[in-house]
Amino acid sequence: MLTPKNKPAPSPSIVRGDEAIRLFLAIAFLAAVHFFVTGSIIDDVADPTGRIFLMIAAVVGGYMALNIGANDVANNIGPVVGSGALTITAAIFLAFFFEGAGALIAGGDVVNTIKKGIIDPSLIPDSQSFVWAMLAALFAAAVWLNVATAIGAPVSTTHSIVGGVLGAGIAAGGWAIADWSKVQQIVASWVISPALGGLIAAAFLYGIKRSIIYKDDMLAAGKNRVPILLGIMAWAFTSYICLKGIKKLIKIDTPTALGIGFVAAIAVFFFTRPIIIKTSTKLENKRESIDGLFVIPLIIGACFLSFAHGANDVANAIGPLAAINEAVRSAEIASKAAIPLWVMGIGALGIAVGLALYGPKLVRTVGTEITELDMIRAFCVSLAAAITVIIATHFGLPVSSTHIAVGAIFGVGFLREALSYRYNQKLELVREYMSEKKNQTEETAAEFVRIFDDASISEKQRILDELKEEDRRHGRRKKLKRAYREKLVQRSLLIKIIIAWVVTVPISAMFAAALFYMIRGFMVGMP
């Protein structure tokens, strides 16, 4: 296990002690849910069996919310932690607040009982079977999220619950119950989400490098271009909040959301430009100075993402629970269900508690283990996440916020590798040319390479132009055999995450189907 320098690795007993404390607190939360529901919620349910199932569903819903907080929230705050803009404690505190606020303020008062319309609930024979199916789906999705968190794989909670509902629905109503076109869209999203997020993040990072970082006077370029980038960020996140964060409070179409975002972009540009100009006069002309200009925007972006996530993804925890509550009380199957305050409270508080107890593991995976992030790279990841969701919403593409964020991180990582490879090629060109010149030793060539490496961008380009002209005059073409591609992305982690994404829906579906049969067998066998 890698540990910071000068800090000894924690002993196994300390690690086990921390795990025991976290487990105790998680169980305490679920016990509190049980006693709360038993003491004040299920008294007005006439059917004794219905009371039992509602109590069990509330605890399982709390368990699901814990796992959403442990796994999914990392996508919003991982980049800001990995870049060093916030400590993991501060980031978790902010996410704790904004996730809860998003769920309670903008989570809505009605939820779709069947996420993404993956099955037709009217084909389930009775409300009792519907309750069994929803409970099986909820528990299966929660268990899979728990497993994914344990192995350090950020997966889509939406796909987890969709898989659970699909498997339990087929078990309850047969193969015809499934909307296979929706299933195909979800399968397509395994490619669409990460690819789109990765391409957009890489495009922004490359644009920032070309327009700011690769300039001799980075501060002068930054004064002109950073306010524009902050305006783009304001446009993206304002539109994102309009489309996703408050959609359950007020319906705003895409053109209107983009128009509101544009107004915000103009305001932010004119507000931040004098601040950036004034700040730049106190900075040195180096990359770290430009990096620091993105700290506050990066933190604000993480807050926006967390708020929108709380408003949307809390439904993954409470949707089936709200459906069970509705079915138990009305003895009917509904495609939509009212969300009582206690149901929303379990979802919001469970996500926050899960984040605080188990979130750091996935936050570190997303923020530091995939590739190294600085503030500019993390800014591009956050911006790509918002823009990709806007594009997907407009075209009706079924994308996952988890896949987008993780794909964006891989995108910036692979761009770093490509640019590093190109630069290594240039260094090798310089080394080979110098070593071939008369009376130039390998040591002299290496010293010239060091000088080239420290030169300004324009000086580097001048040297390379001279070498290319020399090659042209002598009719030579360099073979850069020794140039190498530096591995800046963890391949093993990439493979593990892809496998986890692909198996999420099938595993959740099969487990949910098995659970449904177990529940039905137990209930039918009861006297």
Helix content: over 70%
Please tell me the overall pLDDT: 84
- Number of helical elements: 17
Q: What about the largest sheet? A: 2 strands, antiparallel
End-to-end distance, in Å? 54 Å
* Sheet with the most strands: spatial strand order: 1-2
β-strand amount? under 5%
In total, how many domains does the architecture comprise? Answer: 1
| Shape label | elongated
Low-confidence stretches: 1-9, 11-15
What order do the SSEs take from the amino end to the carboxyl end, as H and E? HHHHEHHHHHHHEHHHHHH
Radius of gyration: 27 Å
Describe this structure in words.
- It contains 17 helices and two strands.
- With 527 residues, it is mainly alpha-helical.
- It has one domain.
- The N and C termini lie far apart (54 Å).
- Residues 1-9 and 11-15 have low confidence and may be disordered.
Summarize the structure.
With 527 residues, this protein is an all-alpha fold.
List keywords for this structure.
single chain, 527 residues, mainly alpha, two-stranded antiparallel sheet, 77% helix, elongated, disordered N terminus
Topology, pairings included?
Blueprint: H1 12-40, H2 48-71, H3 74-82, H4 88-106, E1 110-112, H5 127-150, H6 157-173, H7 180-213, H8 218-245, H9 254-280, H10 287-292, H11 295-330, E2 336-338, H12 341-369, H13 375-395, H14 401-436, H15 442-454, H16 457-474, H17 491-525
Antiparallel strand pairs: 1-2
